[in-house]
């Protein structure tokens, strides 16, 4: 699993190596402090009986359900559900259309829920008569169980990418939800690589196209044609070298949710902290150049919900798609592993012309990760694209789809209109 980006410095990795060498007595590892624990180190993965998602939803007065579904390859996934509005008096109302959310990289269902009913789309959809479900990707804090593997001890547990999420997890999730609700199809809302996973599903499992009534793709990472910015080149080059380093150290669960680390970052990035400007510079260099839609007072709270952990291979897959610009599975740079995963040594490409379900593509002009140029090419490959929609705000960036101050008026109301149109 090696990505190549010529000419990009990786001094950050040398710094980590030096700090780890200074702590080589085993009592402290700076890499583990920043990235995550080694598999088998014996540090338990904590899971709360009352999830943060449930606390968020219930505190806003909405009903909440937790469901678990097992994928074909044994991963046990947690789904969160808001079955109806808090304003609905009868829980036995006629059937509601189903909306399924899929979060982006390193996130969980929490990122769609923490701002409340006046800002977050799941509550708005529940109030509009939808049965709302939120999926959690394998490997994040809510979905770390398996029928036979132990996420704390078995490196094999973590050997998955977006490919498995699209091929195994989304089909199992869709089938479970449709069976539970007695519906024939659902609306799918994916942010960033959450949407990418649905493109993989539609390409590799075309029988599921009929089960998606409308796919609302919010800044989906599929094809990348735009010129990469200098900060992205620096970050990607350092990340690629760091990935090789941490895999060698058996650190496979990257950026899990850790309260001490969230509080540490929250203190550095809070309003009034002299270091906040560094946090904002780093963030805007990755997701977009302008922060007019981001309320900086949210940062400590946001960092208590994000990141929520994932596999190093899944993050590597996202980086590969971005670095190469092509839409294909993760290349493990190992013929045996590729053969085991894809039944061929050469990594195939995803054929999105097989995606027959309706897809609406949404982008912001301030997004430096997914641009209008990228989505125009994606749209040209899709047989049933229903339109490409620019957010009507000059500098709307990648993260604003989740936490933009005016996202309700700029994006969410339009999404609900599109969904109602496709009922």
TrEMBL record:
<keyword id="KW-0442">Lipid degradation</keyword>
<dbReference type="Pfam" id="PF04083">
    <property type="entry name" value="Abhydro_lipase"/>
</dbReference>
<dbReference type="InterPro" id="IPR025483">
    <property type="entry name" value="Lipase_euk"/>
</dbReference>
<keyword id="KW-0378">Hydrolase</keyword>
<feature type="domain" description="Partial AB-hydrolase lipase">
    <location>
        <begin position="54"/>
        <end position="114"/>
    </location>
</feature>
<dbReference type="InterPro" id="IPR006693">
    <property type="entry name" value="AB_hydrolase_lipase"/>
</dbReference>
<dbReference type="GO" id="GO:0016042">
    <property type="term" value="P:lipid catabolic process"/>
</dbReference>
<dbReference type="GO" id="GO:0016788">
    <property type="term" value="F:hydrolase activity, acting on ester bonds"/>
</dbReference>
<feature type="active site" description="Charge relay system">
    <location>
        <position position="398"/>
    </location>
</feature>
<dbReference type="InterPro" id="IPR029058">
    <property type="entry name" value="AB_hydrolase_fold"/>
</dbReference>
<comment type="similarity">
    <text>Belongs to the AB hydrolase superfamily. Lipase family.</text>
</comment>
<feature type="active site" description="Nucleophile">
    <location>
        <position position="192"/>
    </location>
</feature>
<keyword id="KW-0732">Signal</keyword>
<protein>
    <recommendedName>
        <fullName>Lipase</fullName>
    </recommendedName>
</protein>
<keyword id="KW-0443">Lipid metabolism</keyword>
<feature type="signal peptide">
    <location>
        <begin position="1"/>
        <end position="26"/>
    </location>
</feature>
<feature type="active site" description="Charge relay system">
    <location>
        <position position="367"/>
    </location>
</feature>
């Amino acid at each position: 699993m090696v990505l190549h980006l010529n000419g990009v410095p990786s001094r950050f990795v040398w710094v980590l190596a030096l700090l780890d060498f200074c702590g080589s007595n085993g009592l402290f590892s700076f890499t583990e402090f920043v990235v995550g624990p080694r598999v088998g180190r014996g540090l338990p993965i904590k899971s709360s009986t009352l999830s943060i998602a449930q606390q968020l939803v219930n505190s806003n007065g909405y009903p909440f359900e937790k469901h678990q579904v097992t994928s074909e390859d044994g991963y046990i996934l947690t789904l969160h559900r808001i079955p109806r509005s808090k304003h609905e008096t009868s829980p036995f109302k006629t059937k509601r259309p189903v909306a399924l959310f899929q979060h982006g990289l390193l996130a969980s269902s929490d990122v769609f829920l923490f701002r409340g009913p006046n800002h977050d789309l799941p509550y708005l959809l529940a109030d509009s008569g939808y049965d709302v479900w939120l999926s959690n990707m394998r490997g994040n804090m809510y979905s770390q169980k398996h029928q036979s593997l132990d996420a704390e001890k078995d490196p094999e547990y973590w050997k998955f990418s977006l490919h498995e999420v699209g091929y195994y997890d989304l089909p199992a999730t869709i089938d479970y939800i449709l069976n539970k609700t007695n519906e024939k199809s659902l609306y799918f809302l994916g942010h960033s690589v959450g949407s990418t996973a649905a493109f993989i599903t539609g390409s590799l499992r075309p029988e599921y196209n009929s089960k998606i009534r409308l796919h609302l793709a919010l800044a989906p990472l599929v094809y990348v044609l735009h010129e990469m910015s200098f900060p992205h080149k620096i970050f990607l080059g350092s990340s690629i070298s760091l990935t090789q380093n941490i895999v060698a150290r058996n650190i496979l669960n990257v950026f899990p949710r850790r309260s001490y680390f969230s509080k540490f970052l929250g203190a550095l990035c809070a309003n009034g902290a002299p270091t906040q400007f560094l946090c904002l510079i780093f963030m805007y260099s990755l997701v977009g150049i302008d922060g007019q839609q981001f309320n900086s007072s949210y940062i400590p709270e946001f960092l208590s919900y994000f990141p929520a952990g994932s596999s190093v291979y899944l993050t590597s897959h996202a980086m590969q798609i971005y670095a190469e610009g092509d839409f294909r599975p993760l290349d493990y740079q190992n013929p045996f592993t590729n053969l085991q995963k894809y039944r061929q040594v050469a990594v195939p490409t995803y054929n999105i012309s097989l995606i027959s379900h309706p897809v609406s593509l949404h982008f912001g002009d301030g997004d430096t990760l997914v641009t209008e140029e990228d989505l125009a090419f994606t749209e040209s490959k899709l047989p049933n694209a229903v339109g490409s929609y620019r957010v009507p705000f000059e500098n709307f960036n990648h993260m604003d789809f989740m936490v933009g101050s005016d996202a309700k008026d700029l994006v969410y109301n339009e999404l609900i209109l599109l969904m109602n149109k496709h009922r």
